[in-house]
Specification:
This protein is α+β, with helices and mostly antiparallel strands. Helix content is 16%, strand content 32%.
Length: 293
């Protein structure tokens, strides 16, 4: 029987960046961070690793926020999170609002979702879930005017990922569910304060060799990890953007590590046995229905 369906097969291309791991920003107060990320956003503190008072890892589906204690860092952009229950999120944010008075915390509903600002100014956009119920789906980053094309080329040529310019922004696939979006702005960018992201590569040595030849390796961390800071114009060497990338191989011990995620709708007052874990998979309708049966 003939099948006349047409699929865009390029939509499933991942490229060499096979994992987006985390966004790392320092926070001055772990108590306020818990109120915001766990109680307000409804995310889950990693129960196994980094469980002290000097750092906190927050699970977001298969991705994370890392929140070490220190002077506040503010990512120059917006982290986009898919969430399964927008109404529940709005209720939780309203509850924590009074505890976060006097900070930079705010939230409001827009046509795109719920725009949230953390107590120290980090911007987070929460959007209704589609292909995965909970994840960091985009990290939108600000770059100067005229930088998008060079940034997309850098990721293509250095990292081997199918980055492209779309609507004036460099769009970079970064793992199964996440993409980096470098969006041009004419606003003055604040000084880079050290916030970083983490990615995982299939071809680990190839990008390292290219970065090393350009003098762009900022840290040789260990056998399975290195870091870089500057994204440059590959013709002129001019710095187009600065953001530390923590780069890991697929042999890193924590590659694709399973993460615990709770369903924030379950509480001691509204409890259902066996419903504590959040199921990350999307509904079949969102994924295309019976083709998965």
């Amino acid at each position: 029987m003939a099948d006349d369906r047409v699929f865009d097969r390029t939509a499933d291309d991942i490229g060499n960046i096979v994992e987006f791991g985390h966004v790392n920003v320092r926070v001055p107060d772990q108590h306020l961070a818990t109120l915001f990320y766990v109680t307000g956003l409804g995310l889950t503190r990693d129960p196994y690793l980094v469980t002290g008072v000097e750092n906190m890892w927050i699970n977001v589906g298969t991705t994370q926020f890392h929140l070490p204690t220190g002077p506040a860092q503010v990512l120059r952009g917006t982290t986009v999170i898919s969430v399964p229950d927008m109404a529940g999120l709005a209720r939780r944010l309203a509850v924590v609002a009074r505890h976060l008075e006097g900070s930079k915390f705010s939230f409001g509903e827009t046509s795109a979702g719920i725009e949230v600002t953390c107590p120290w100014g980090n911007r987070i956009r929460c959007v209704p879930a589609t292909s995965i119920r909970l994840a960091i789906t985009e990290v939108e980053l600000d770059c100067p005017l005229g930088g998008a094309a060079g940034i997309a080329r850098f990721y293509r040529d250095i990292y081997g990922t199918p980055a492209a310019v779309e609507h004036g922004a460099a769009v970079v696939p970064a793992g199964l569910y996440t993409r980096l979006v470098w969006r041009e702005t004419d606003a003055a960018l604040p000084a880079y304060d050290g916030a970083h992201i983490q990615i995982g590569l299939a071809d680990f040595s190839g990008p390292h060799r290219k970065l090393n030849a350009l003098g762009l390796i900022s840290e040789e961390s260990n056998q399975h990890q290195y870091r870089m800071l500057d994204i440059t114009d590959l013709d002129t060497g001019r710095v187009l953007a600065t953001l530390e990338h923590e780069v890991r191989s697929m042999r890193h011990p924590m590659y694709a590590r399973p993460l615990i995620n709770r369903d924030p709708a379950i509480s001691n007052n509204l409890y259902a046995l066996g419903r504590e874990p959040l199921v990350l998979g999307a509904d079949l309708v969102a994924m295309g229905g019976s083709s998965f049966l």
